[in-house]
Batch of 2 targets.
Target 1
Amino acid sequence: MDRFTVFAPRLVEKAEYFTSGHRACQGCAEALAVRLVMKALGRNTIVAMATGCMEIISSPLPTTAWNVPWIHVAFENASAVISGCEAGMKVLMRKGKVPEKKINFVAMGGDGATADIGMGQLSGALERGHDMIYVCFDNEAYMNTGIQRSSSTPYGASTTTSPAGKVSIGQRTQKKNLPQIAVAHNIPYVATACPSFPFDLMEKVKKAANIKGPAYVHILSVCPTGWRIPTSDSIRYGRLAVDTGVFPLYEVVDGKYRMTYEPQKLRPVGDYLKGQGRFRHLKDKDIEEIQRRVNQEYEKIISKCGGM
Amino acid sequence: MAKPMEEIKWQELEPGAVVREVGNAREYETGTWRSEKPVVNADECIHCGVCWLFCPDAAIHQMPDGHFEANLTYCKGCGICARECPVGCITMVAEEEE
Amino acid sequence: MGVRKGIEVSLAISEAVAQCNVDLIAAYPITPQTHIVEHLSEIVANGELDAEFVPVESEHSAMSVCCGSAAVGARTFTSTSSQGLALMSEIFIIASAMRLPVVMALANRSLSSPLSIWNDHTDTMLVRDAGWIQVFIENGQEAYDHMPWAFRVAEDPDVLLPVAVNIDGFILTHMIEPVEYIEDSVIKKYLPEFKYPIALHPDNPLSMGCFAMPELYTEAQKARDNAVVNSYSTIVKAWKEWEQLTGRSYHPIETYRADDADYCIVTMGSYGETAMEVVDMLREEGEKVGAVKIRLWRPFPFDDFYKAVLGKNHLVVIDRAISFGGPGGPVASELRSALYSKQGAPKVINYVAGLAGRDVSRHDFKNILLDAKEKVQRGEMEGYTLYGLRG
């Protein structure tokens, strides 16, 4: 279990750094993830955000949903922009031009910004070792432009550029494994998280903030619009992704893996797929194939964590 | 208060059109999007705050007696709170037609 | 007052940047800019300058890092050329829109394809309309002088715009020239500390780089254009102050023996020096020729330009880039447009010359002038001529 007791929310930061009035769709778990990430980080944070849903819905002039310093430059470069903020602030403090203070430098981007267009820039920033956090909000497609596939879209999902059809299953490729790519950079902290497990998420973000050097947090962010599920079910599907092993929750601290939440027994992947409009066309044999793949990937993570 | 965008003259923009009045998105009332609203049975509410924690719009607040209510100025009516309430004390009710 | 050194122009640029006590340099290697950033990284590595040198993985990231750095209020420098500029152009444009005062030494080089590493102005013309302050310089001393000047202008609270100093690749960047160095104390006096009024910091949160609906986009662009146009007065003031400190004067448009000239050669960048030599040479031969040099390209100094050329008969404009399928070289097109409705406007004869480093000597300049005269006699002054083209 996520260390989740019904009375625990009282212990959570009350202040909102990502405020009401943002224009995310109803039931947007990505907006929730941003809200929780910001609660974990607190006010001494500078955010550089990639173009995408969260940027559009939070900053239509002359309003902003942000209560912390926030910058958006373009789609692919949040990691480079935050590199500049971090390095610039570091030298200003070193030269005594700005008083010393612990500031969290956080880049945020969707899966398109992270896995596709901004992949090189993310790699560059992680390799250079900036004291920063990169948070990827993965809703598994380009939702802002109308649900086009990304390299983070899972196999079999129907999107507007990977539509299921008579001769196509939808997305033909397997989801790119971004956390593993981050791990390959030998950075001190990598984690996966999901807002359906809010305490696990906030704990990981706090850890990422307190570790010196680059940290990468990959957050599965359910999108009711793009996944074609009822708006009330965003939290439920995030939980199902974890409970079926589709999206395991783990962290990698200095190269050491640890599952942060282990379901007693994985639920069948069909529980997660059925009910989502993007997977509605899948046949039983397709689901079997996906189950085989999920098992295989889950085993890999379990073995990296040192076995069951 | 931020001026309505169609009234802002170019001379009034900050350099780079930065917004200094942080968090002023609060002036935008997303509650008008709603077709269903959450109704809390205050007697059954155990004051746990799960609804508050899971609200993507930070549109739930605690009342002086400890129970939680939706802030209808912002609540978009997604129904997450009703779905996630551990004691089932929140019901989604259709907004009445004006 | 200062020390005179014989030094490669790229290195003089780096040392001027270091004297400006820059906080952050982000750069990616590309010929012919490399010596500038190599030497800066060396200066930082030797502890002679306390700055962050961010060795990025692409030019796109170089400009992105510069945006982040300027946004927190750090004095920020980068340098690039050609394909590097093309790759970073997306962010180059945004930097001015967001009023991020980055300074760039742009070692001008042709754009591919065919791939070429040599000098012309096709790279900088790509970003002509990006909202940066853009100047062209002629020699090593000017390159050195324009680094403190660029920071002085970019960071002025009345300006807050990025500045690109265009330096012809190889034919200037790689020359060894005598350069008079200015003492640090003088530069410190000239260049106040950078105080960015919209810096990102938790104590003063703000949102920058927001999204605009059609109701506001036009107003945002007007504000940006106004900032570029209004930067003129600071630009000129900063040159005047530099003149007071060093005795070297710079102007938006500069003329040479142009007062009674029947034909004026118009150039930007290092060709200005060749143009002046050709003018001297032809004056000896009895020709009434002069030179007009455009130093300030953006904001375009319309009044200075009119003052320099109205009443003259002919302008022979040397462009270093082509607008394919368009009206000719970008400089000539712009000058023709500026002169269109003016009384006493000279005729413009346009040559595109020296693409990708093809040598243009004094002799070639003379040929161009002779050719221009023939064109005028034949009344064929439209379009452009690609000078030195075979076939």
Target 2
Amino acid sequence: MVARIFGFAAVAACLAMPVFAAVALSDAAGSYTISPAGSSIRFSVGKAGGGGLAGAFARFKGSIRIDSSNVGRSQVNITIFPESVGTGQRRVDAFLRSDAVFDAANSPEIQFRSTSVKRTGDTSALVTGRLTARGKTFPEKFTAELAGLKAGTIRFHVTGKVLRSRYGMDVGTPIYSNVVDFDMTLTGRRR
Amino acid sequence: MPALITNSTTRYGWAAIVLHWLIAAIFIGQFALGFVMMRVSSQRTAFELIQLHKSFGFLLLGLVILRIAWRLGNTVPALPRSVGRFERRVAPLVHFALYAFQLALPLSGWALVSVSMLEIPSVPFNLFVMPDLPLAESDSAESFWTSAHWYLAYAGIGLVALHFAAALRHHFWLKDAVLTRMITPSSDHNAE
């Protein structure tokens, strides 16, 4: 992670200095639609004895709005369709979609609605919001790192940890960790 | 007589008796659990029952190894005189087969979870991580061991039924000590 930050900083310094040094809010401000093509929502759950279960959601939608005068008033909304979960193992996917985990038939959407965005650095922010899954809503935090800004396109690398037990998805604990690690790349196209 | 723990030439000791019934209960319980866990509709319940089945499987394997070691290091009581010539030949074969099934069932189950592409860790009773057997994972290996485990289970429970029927025959028909000497070591009923 540290190496990645340094690597990132080095690339930023060489290539994108004018943009990243002072990410002018006026440049980034605006409303974006999350583009599935340039985005991914991956997750992993550690398991006893090492390793873990990794997967991704193929279908999701959302929007990012960056406030022109105050980053704190920015907003992120994401809807994930758990039916689209994929781990590379058909039986695991069926298990995750079933009422053992996502209950995708009865709860077809997982929603995240940000409630606050705090800038934590030149290119990073802490996004707090309300995550709703299987009818249960809890506050969650995600770290967003600006990963690219080009005409009309903005890209964030977003990470965060979510405790699945709170959403009625505690099946398999403690063999499988209660902590779900999210690792997302969200690319927004200016509306 | 040292507290009737070990066997003598005429009777079983408490160690052999307790191991026999403990393993019998787990073996039959595992058959029932295995039957149910493959048929419940809730995937969550199925997952939990399968983990429980694995836990008892590893417990069974440990007890069976202990039992075989105990059996090899102990006197084997002679069969009562009432036991006929045919049974004297067949009973040891059935008993040997029963031991073989007691070993083969947990081992084939362990092989099954080891080769499964699902890579679900084995954590007996949530106490510790049981490593997988060093076998290559593949869907074909999993279906082979699933079938092997299934056939062994049905053949094993059939053998248990035969063993059980023989014990009842001895007790109620022949009225000898074959069953009672596996219940308590204290009775002086071994006509030897």
